[in-house]
Amino acid sequence: MLVIVFVTFSLSWLPLYAVGLRLLFSAPDEMSAGERTTLKMYVLPVAQWLGAANSAINPFIYCYFSASFRSAIRQALCTAPSTTATREAPARGATAC
Asked: What is the pTM of this model?
């Protein structure tokens, strides 16, 4: 699982850093104005979105590969916290999910 998370992280964030380094370290005469505009207007936003999407992808990776993570998520989603002190106890054998 750790390898999958690492590879996903790397593939998600590498384009953003590659574009950023290209814009930062390229000499003004190396890159045309059209290329610079294309990188800033189109490629950079997609690369930023891809990097941020990594945070949305990770829970699915964890759920797929980890049974303990699945059970913890199931427990967190299926048991609602009690809002009143006088709430009735559920019937014997009943579950929240």
From this structure: 0.67
